[in-house]
């Protein structure tokens, strides 16, 4: 029974998600960074969140070198969420 669906829970997940943006921006010290990396390797929920943010960030920065357009970001987020929901629905059956 180690199947978990939905949002991350527990102190490790909380910590990882709190530092997610710093981690992606590489604005975190290397000790914390490797802690988060280790957690993401083990936790699919956090990995999902990490991938989502990283994908959005890279898409936004690639498509526009100036200020990230909010409508684009929302659009990307929605489409990725839809895929994620689809994946987790598939997993539960
Ligand atoms: Zn986690």
Going by helix content, strand content and strand pairing, the class is mainly alpha
Sequence stretches where pLDDT stays below 50 over 5 or more residues: 1-6
Q: What is the share of helical residues?
A: over 70%
> How many structural domains can be distinguished in the coordinates?
1
Order of helices and strands: HHHHH
Oligomer: single chain
The fraction of residues in strands falls at under 5%
Largest sheet: none
* Overall body shape: flat
Mean pLDDT: 78
Output the number of helix runs: 5
Commentary on this structure:
With 93 residues, the protein is mostly helical. It has one domain (11-92). 74% of the residues lie in helices and 0% in strands. The protein is built from 5 helices and no strands. The protein is flat, with a radius of gyration of 14 Å. The two termini are 15 Å apart. The protein binds zinc ion.
List keywords for this structure.
93 residues, disordered N terminus, flat, mainly alpha, binds zinc ion
